[in-house]
Amino acid sequence: MDLVGACKAFVAVSGYNSFTVGASAARIPQSVASRRVAALEKHLGARLFTRSSRTVVLTAFGREMLRPARRLVELAETMEHDAERARLRPFRLAVPAICMPRLLAGLVAEARRHDLNLDLYPAEPVERAELVRTLEVRAALVAVPADEGVWRVPLGLAGHADPGDATAIYIETLRAGRAERGTRRRRVWLQPEDDVPHVRDRVTRLRDSVGLQPAQVVVTDSLVAATAEVLGSTDVLLCSRSQADELGLYWRPVGEMPLARGYDVAAGLRDEVQQIRALPVLARCLGA
């Protein structure tokens, strides 16, 4: 039996001494109100009303039950109100600063269809991890090694010049030849999102193994500044294919080794981790 629904019908009918008017006030058909009150009487084991052809009057038992029934209805309404507020309360999620606004807007819209009101906080990898650790956000998309992540984002090198039919770019080709000595050496720009050990350290080890100068791999604190350098020179930017398309650059994978970002969700509650992982549009936001 729906105890709360039955109590709502009982309280409404008692307030008007009428099944017809009480049912209308409770916004249910009269037949439903009658069935619910009858079920409540059966459940409690005694009559709540004395019925006549024109009116209904509370019995002595009904008067005793009216106060607890009202309390139950009020508690149920309070719980429904609190549940609505909880569904609408913003869920603060730290996301990579490189995610495109258009895709993030799609993420927010999709989350709302799952009764999740996202409040997105773009940040760099170290800050995202710290925000979730200090509980300043409820969850964060954290950077992890690609083979440990829920999402894997392949990385390559992007430049402003069309590479033609070339399918890959080898970092060793950035090494200056004899004829180029004394000229400015080409650089690989790493953006803040890739300034993490499992990406940055692999690139620097590759740099050293093919004989590039230390200054030829640069970690920038500004994607805008790095992209400007690439657009105005033969430098290249380490990025995903989708990010290269957004920046108007030509993207190729790294020939010497596969490079990739990895992402997972960190949150205080396992249910919230699963809730965020279940949003399909997250993969598109990350470029996975």
TrEMBL record:
Pfam families assigned: HTH_1
Stretches of the chain forming a coiled coil according to its record: none
Domain HTH lysR-type: 1-59
Gene3D superfamilies according to UniProt: Winged helix-like DNA-binding domain superfamily/Winged helix DNA-binding domain
PROSITE patterns found in the cross-reference section: HTH_LYSR
Signal sequence annotation: none
Protein's UniProt keywords contain Transmembrane: no
Keywords, comma-separated and alphabetical: DNA-binding, Transcription, Transcription regulation
Superkingdom in the source lineage: Bacteria
SUPFAM superfamilies: Winged helix' DNA-binding domain
Keyword DNA-binding: yes
InterPro entries, per database record: LysR_HTH_N, WH-like_DNA-bd_sf, WH_DNA-bd_sf
Family in the record: Belongs to the LysR transcriptional regulatory family.
Name of the protein in its database record: LysR family transcriptional regulator
